[in-house]
Amino acid sequence: MRYTQETGEILQKKEIAPGIYDITVNLPKIAKAASVGQFVNIYCGGFTLRRPISLCGFDQKLGTVRLVFEVRGEGTKCLAEYSAGDMLDVVGPLGHGFSMTDSAKKAVIVGGGIGTPPLLPVAEFYRQNAVVITGFRTASAAILQQDFAAAGAKTILCTDDGSAGYHGFTTQAFEEYLNEKGCDIIYTCGPRAMMKGVAKLALERGIDCQVSLEERMGCGVGACMCCVCATKGKKGMQYSRVCLNGPVFSASEVDWDV
Amino acid sequence: MSDMSVTICGVTLKNPVIAASGTFGYGMEYNEFYPISRLGGVSCKGTTLKERLGNPPPRIAETCAGILNSVGLQNPGLDSFISTYLPWLKKQDTAVIANIAGSTVEEYCEIAERLSGTDVDIIELNISCPNVKQGGVSFGTSCESVAKVTSEVKKRSAKPVMVKLTPNVTDIGDIAKAAEDAGADALSLINTITGMRIDIKTRRPVLRNNTGGLSGPAVFPVAVRMVHEVYKRVNIPVVGMGGITKWEDAAEMMIAGASAVQVGTANFRDPFACIRIIEGLERFAASLGLKSIAELTGTVLEW
User: Fold this and answer.
1) Per residue in A115-153, is it b (16+ CB within 10 Å) or e — as a string?
2) Which are the catalytic amino acids of B?
């Protein structure tokens, strides 16, 4: 049995930025089976669908899973009302995650907004060989900067309004960094427009790039064909399942023009 | 313990719970939660003659007590179904229901004919998909077209044919009767109810297809009413579905007239939904001292 439904206690809960929550949940079976870039599907009261949230971290020894999510709609609003001590019904670990083989490679990690959390374990793998370029609307919305620094990665913070760090989009900062230093591998997660920009630069320069996509999801396990994204198949454009074939895809297999 | 098996169109299911088409793939994914041999049957993802891409995303929107979907029959086509999925599924010791969809009557017939030489147990004629431009629900909304496609497929199929009905009609009883008169061996209902959601900020429909099919607990009372109406009009078995989420719903559906039930959307929230429903029905049947779960079917005491 590859999938587990597990109910575990919320051990810690913090609001790390307005409307963004960081929870640690006791889920030993899921933590044990998890790999970087995967997600879990969470039940929150009364809704027909679970909420897919990517793993910001997992500790196989402690049997815990860390999730960072933003209140976006009714479901995540409900999830934000859970407190430490409450039990959470979680299915996971799900999906195809990031591939990380050689920590000596120079990695550039580009995250936008709430797309940043699943990239933290990637930085923890590459440590001092990772450069993390993350972008947020404004300084108060910035998250996980200390966590990335604690992993040993160099961080470049960007804000749309210039209230902290680089004034501009991550894609601009990323291009400047590439021109100056170059890299061996790229990981990205965030708004589609940002990932499309990152993917374009990576493809132009022939650098391996992995993207973590998002789509409105049904079953979360590959059965219902709801959460598809356009990819390049042998016979032309095809729809792949974000929940099963992804969420992580190679930038070169995604059909960005659809 | 009561005998949990039920027989529909000559096929015995070990229990009356079937995973519903379109929510369960070919069973492989849910087999990673529990052995799908515990199910009465699996109704496979709608299969077309050729591979279908499906509709562009987003394909799903949540609603109050339900979901809208507009997948549009994305599937790898009949050849892949027969060569890849069916052999695996036949090894799982559960009844295999092949749900088929075509753009023309001839396509339905061709698929049915080719499946006649395979190990599928029942063919479920999907004349009720609301998310494709050609075929699908357009076959299911008039008595004449239902009769036509049913009788033509019956001529070419060596397998029992169960016709899956759409609720998007004026009189479901008339449609059911037309299918029975045309030779249907069983009926299954309801497919989804056509619906729409709009994002009030962008004024765009949430679904890229604009409209989709509503399923989940929201449609359950509609399904119970329709199953009951159909049960009273026909003499062939009725498989009830639409919003069944817990064993009590399944029992209610059987009391309304269903010989078996299908469970779909509930799998998304609770991947073990089918198992919990089977176990609940077992306890319920035992508590009533039933010899067979089939004794529940159609026992509603109408006012």
Assistant:
1) bbbbbbbbbbbbeebbbbbbbbeeeebbbbbebbeebeb
2) 129
